[in-house]
Model the fold of this input.
Amino acid sequence: MKIPKEAIFLILVLLSIWTLSPFIVIACIAVIAILFFQRLNKYELGTSLLLFGVTVFGYVGLKIGLPVIGKLSGLLGLYLIRDSISAIGRHITLYTTLAVSFFICLVFYFLGPQTSVASEKLIDVIYYSVIYVFIFNAIFFFGSKINYVMFSRLAICFVLLYVSIAAQYDLSEFKQYISELSGLRTAVDQWNIENIVYTKDGFGDTTSAVSYQLVGNFTALSLVLLLSYILSSSTPGKLLSDCKFLIFSHLVLILMSGARQSILLVMLAAVSLFFCGKSIDRRYLTRFSLWMSLLVLSLVIVGLALEVRSIVNLFEAEGGFAAVINRQINIDAAYELIAEKPWLGFGFGGYYIPEFGFKSGEFKYFPHNVLLELLSEFGIIGTVLFLSVWLVHYVNRYHASRVSLFRAEIYHGVYALPLFTFYFVSALMNEILVKSIALFILTSFMLYRPKSHA
Done:
């Protein structure tokens, strides 16, 4: 009996989670190299390195004493997709808009606390903007050269490497939890409880270097791109059948991470395909949506039965949706800051949580909502100015191309709306401006799309 290649890959994924061994992860990468090597190209490796590898290898490098590895992986990613640089010159108006946005951030930086946290945030906004321009440029203009099945296999390997290194270095005392349902979140929470840093006012600042949100969101992003690729294809049934083990690998990692919004991101991204063009096979899309709904319902039932804290809290939290997703304190703080300085805010990087007793900009807190972040740091005036710059840019691009967000394509027949949905919901629920800038840049690329594709 011949074992499918994807089944071998899934077995190694499950072994990686069970043993939390970096050596098993390396074996996964070896399987990709051996079994799928003839299908791997520089665009898949380059884009996956920029989207996932820079963060993962940056973390790995810090733990093994070679922090330069993260930067080198980013340079390697840029080198691999260097052919796409020829298309960079098409986006002069985007660069102008980004430059004006950076100038606004700089002005409000000098109006703010000017702390090291604020300075780091300003540098990160510029850094990630450059990275996202290269990523989306490669995806949109060379998308036909990227096999998202291979891309997703690589993403899974990067996430597994991150988890296994975290288990060896930062969560060694709690790694017995990680292979359980919502286990990574439990392990991180236990670490935070035992290593909390208290202030003079009694409030704590947790400093765990491991992020279960990163694991969940990276895996969800990979799955969103994979599903968009599969469900937009001319043979979705065959691709779904061929990739069932790969999809299952993604879902296992998301459930292990305990990042609840990652499941929501995948579901909303899949649903967004209903609003795309006629080339979408809605039969398979409906089946997948129903299957995901049953999976979530089963997850809730099992989580309640096993008293998994992240599931139980969904039903015990008071205060509405913000409380359910553990954002109430951050959002309340944003409202308080906006009420105190409504017009010009607290300056770039000036957001803080008064209840914790910290000074403005002392710690890297954010309200988990890009609009509230802008309002609390830029005020009404700065927020309107910042958003108006982008709105004018979008209107000009739309008039030039007449491309709707609902019809924008990564390449012929593969719609970009699920990717937009992922970044849009992330910006409103989880990310800081440093990462939410991806939404602004992505929207620009979607509205630029010409009728012909690379």
